[in-house]
Automatic annotation (TrEMBL):
tRNA processing among keywords: yes
UniProt similarity note: Belongs to the MnmA/TRMU family.
Segments for region (Interaction with tRNA): 147-149
tRNA-specific 2-thiouridylase MnmA-like central domain mapped to chain residues: 212-276
An example Gene Ontology biological process: tRNA wobble position uridine thiolation
GO cellular component terms given for this protein: cytoplasm
Protein name (database record): tRNA-specific 2-thiouridylase MnmA
Residues the record marks as site: Interaction with tRNA: H126, Q346
Location(s), subcellular: Cytoplasm
Organism: Nocardioides caeni
Amino acid sequence: MKVVAAMSGGVDSAVAAARAVEAGHEVTGIHLALSRNPQSYRTGARGCCTIEDANDARRAADVIGIPFYVWDLSDRFHTDVVEDFMDTYAAGQTPNPCLRCNEKIKFAAVLDRALALGFDAVATGHYATVVESGGDIELHRAVDGAKDQSYVLGVLDDRQLRHSLFPLGDTTKDRVREEAARRGLLVADKPDSHDICFVADGDNVGWLKEKLGDRAPNHGGEIRDDATGDVLGRHDGTYGFTIGQRRGLRLGRPAPDGRPRYVLDIEPVSGTVTVGPRERLAVDRIEGDRLRWCGASLPAGTVLDGDAVTVQLRAHGAEHRARVAVGDDTLDVELLDHADGIAPGQAVVVYDGTRVIGSATITRSRRVAAVGAPGVGGVGG
């Protein structure tokens, strides 16, 4: 096959490209220029989005012996990822920009361009596995559970999966680094990227404050106690908070019992942030929209319920046993294992064993009632 290898400048994508060549594919390396102004994105060799990363990717392509090009997708990236990130925070929600980048950029814009140019597939350094079963295409977890990235790939549809290669799904990170060194790739010891690529210094709150400024309705508001309704302090913007946050609350006085408080709810219209004890973070029901099927779709009315059905709610979070009801473009998830600190805007990804079934964007969650309490609290829009 003719394959485009998306090369970020990190070790994973370099080894993935090398493995694609070794598998007999005709491979062309590409690096994505995602910033209109490279100086405005993260500096330093961290594996994504910097000038140093582009140079690292080019050197790796030279060592592997494949053609290499830079594709400018900065306008598309700004619209589909950066603007989405700001809009989601402005709505009092918590986005996942890496998931949105996979959906809109790496496996949409890049794939569409690759197919138009006569390529058959896009290869990346993600840790996941694609399996063909009876004519259906399936996405499964990687062998290395600590590095598994199937969660952020849960937005890929059947067409995208059929044109995707994940050469690292059967190996571990340690072995990838060993292989890179063996192949003479200088990125063998390069650190992984953890920060959001378009936030240059890793200060998400500072970046959002600069970009959003006084943008209504998130400028300023009260921090209130969940149990009493008392005003405990004020803040400069709801974008500085996420559900489950403990640090940086700057409250005027401690809780009566001396225990830490956590963010329980964010109301962007009034600007109210509600805080309370950790046990009030427990959630037993989730609603989501923007439903995406990862492979074959399931009809509305389907209920997934069994020992192997789980959901994952964070990129490297735990699995939770669940009962999942499918709507027209929605999921209703009953968590059999409670989860803590679930925020609207995050993704809920549904698994059947190791297979990814699909995903949705969380719109609401229901907090577990405290023991002896008469009602149940709700979080979300």
